[in-house]
Amino acid sequence: MGFYVPGQGWLHRLHPWPKLLFVILGVLAPFLLPLVLLPVLIVTPIGLALSAGLGERYVRNVAIGTLPICASIILVNGFFYPGAREVVLGLGPFHLTREGLAFAAPTAARVIAAVAATIAFVMTTRPDDLMEALVERGAHPKLAFVVLSAIQTIPRMIDKANRILEAQQARGLAASGSFGARGRAIVPLLGPLIIGSLIDVRERSLALEARAFSSGAERTAYRLVPVRAVDRLATRIALAGLLALPVIVALRIAGVINV
Amino acid sequence: MTTRSSTFSMSQFTTTTIVLMAVAIAINIAVGYVVQNVLKLPIYLDSIGTVLVGILAGPLAGAATGALANIIWGLTIGPSTITPFAITALFIGFLAGWFGSRGWFAASGGGISWVRAAIAGVITGVVAAIVSAPIAYFVFGGTTGGGTDAVVAIFRNMTDNIFLATQLQGLASDPVDKLATFLVAMAILIAVPVTVKTTFPQGEKTV
Fold first, then answer.
1. What is the pTM of this model?
2. In this predicted complex, what is the ipTM?
């Protein structure tokens, strides 16, 4: 579920580990590197994603992920930037200011760059493969279980919530209407959902224990993602980028780079 | 049986805790959906799962649940802009676990436990607001992309400082939401059978 879509593009075939390193780089770089690089940081993930065949769905996901927050950033900062003088546009009592927009534009650009990188990553990486790659590199298998189990449980939980809503409404629960009525619906709706799930937890952990969940024995994986030469190269490039970040930040702080 | 020293030890990550964490992450998302989209209330309650893990399993488990919940939410269905607030969720889970370890949510405490739960909620809400403000400021220029941005706008008009306005918006909404969350958690813990509660590391403290 979620953003992942199966595919055959080169991003899909790239090993999850370099992809994870690249998305970390792609999320940190917009906030740490000089502003002048922002256009590159936006175009690069989008270009790579499109070249890997992610298509219209990718663009739509990025748009949905960024439009609300960017609209907020631009409107709130554009109209309500303290100490701003140069009015660009006046709408009644509200003034759009140049200083506000000058603050909002790079802020919004950073968010777009980070989201573009993130969506490219989640659309091309199966959670199972990602968690297996992490466990191979030392992550605790129980962490992998929590993540994968949570991802699988989310749609079932929402489903359960909807069924409880219908069942309670069939018993006369008002889930709309006055504020008080909706507030009183919290317990009849959430109560069965959460309490039922907590009781379930006991059953599930017994089942896991019966399968030696906490024995600590070495586990094998069902799906293996091979590491190819191109994956190793990608990993090296990503690590180089990640190591370069603190260096660049230090140079900026020291004033050697003045952007 | 739990001892004081195990509150902050890795031993709280039993199999039952692990399963609870996974379920709690899903609960966060489902509850967030019900409260926001179905009931359309001005609170979120989307940290209820994190809080329950904290109270029942301990502060470390609570913190881990909070962080993982935000990350998973942002990377699967939600707006990915939720992910940076994993740090806030970490604090929420940790505090819930810490208050739980002090026995603040004991059902046997009667009225006092409700008062304690309320206080714990408000304190956690204030901490959450304080932790979130720099994140909202540095990552999103002081906005969140939600309806609460109207509140941000109002505070910006009142103060001369973006950071202060962001902080005030957080303080206006987080303590209320966390107060509601902790009270709902209290109600749920009272209703959960004792045999179920005590399978968790800190469960006995809620009896």
1. 0.90
2. 0.89
